[in-house]
Amino acid sequence: MSVAGPVSSAIAAVEAARHTPVVPGAPLLPGVVGVMWADGRVIAEHVAGSAVLYDAAGALLPEPARSATRADTVFDVASLTKLCTATLALQQAEAGLLDLDAPVADYLPVFAAGGKQDITVAQLLTHTSGLESWLPLWRDWPTPRERIHAALTRPQASPAGRFVYSDLNLITLGVLLENRCATPLDVLLRDHVTTPLGMSDTGYVTQLGHLDPERFAATEIEDDAGRGLVRGEVHDENSWSLGGVAGHAGVFSTAADLLQFARVFLGGGEVDGTRILSEESVVRMTTNLNGDLPDDAHGLGFEIDQPRYMGELSGPRTIGHTGFTGVSLVVDLDRSAVAILLSNAVHPRRGTAPTNAVRAAWATGLSRALA
């Protein structure tokens, strides 16, 4: 099959999502940047829609007032942040500063509260710690210090070994890394990942002051948090309440930079002559460690073989992650292929419709183009 047909079908699926209202006046994907990469080159790119489509009251902006999406639009990548935090953790393990199989409480004694003394660092990364999935830290605790304490001292919600996808896992890991390295998480990411890889458009917003504010895609109107229309600040309320820097959310990026990041894992930890991870660390991040949980395959950071958003690109050697704002990264290790779909699907409100069908269609387009 030629590349043109599958790519056209994938683009059509994205455009259908952009133009099919699920609530009056609200498309699923206000703005989108999609990239398909294989055989060492970009085989398809799709840029459409608006980085800002609604005003602070939720009204559709007139055409002249809209901000068009560009190939270099900077998106809040939400839970793709977890992959950055995982990478930092593996780096510190390589340096001998962190034992991934040791209890978290060895590094953060307060974490032992609530019977959590035996939970390991690796269990945070595979979401098998038993921590509950989420807490409204921003709403129920008044200061960043109290929010962190609440996250660290919360008792288990289920026995360790069960899969429960939890932001608290990566919030905890972010705090652990900061304490262990005596360095803020945003600086760790800049110094050990984005700068070595030349990802100048990627980082926590605290490190992106050099970027034109007009490049940022808007996300949600967060009236409950008293924030109004969010743009150029992290969408996730808990990360925002922690200063915009946390292990679970807060990173912004572009399609080009995420492609560079993805290629690290295709290259065994190295891309363009720069190594940021050992081959062994890449294997640990990309190999299923939840073998007794077939629907929840997970390495130390990456999700594995998840057809719900990986589509036909899915398989036991396909890794990836999604982000709540409307983003996804899928990497087929065997075919050296990458599917990236970035959108601001929560603009102007979350919950208008699921995005997995569009993510899967985009990844499927790449898979069929390679057939």
UniProtKB/TrEMBL annotation:
Q: Report any Pfam family annotated for this entry.
A: Beta-lactamase
tRNA processing among keywords? no
Task: Please list the residue ranges annotated as the Beta-lactamase-related domain.
Answer: 30-353
Q: Does the keyword Hydrolase apply?
A: yes
The UniProt keyword set, sorted, is: Hydrolase
**Any GO molecular function:** hydrolase activity
Q: Which InterPro entries does this entry report, sorted A to Z? A: Beta-lactam-related, Beta-lactam/transpept-like, Diverse_Enzym_Activities
Q: Which Gene3D superfamilies match?
A: DD-peptidase/beta-lactamase superfamily (3.40.710.10)
Q: What is this protein called?
A: Beta-lactamase family protein
Q: Which organism is it from?
A: Flexivirga aerilata
Q: What is the lineage of its organism?
A: Bacteria, Bacillati, Actinomycetota, Actinomycetes, Micrococcales
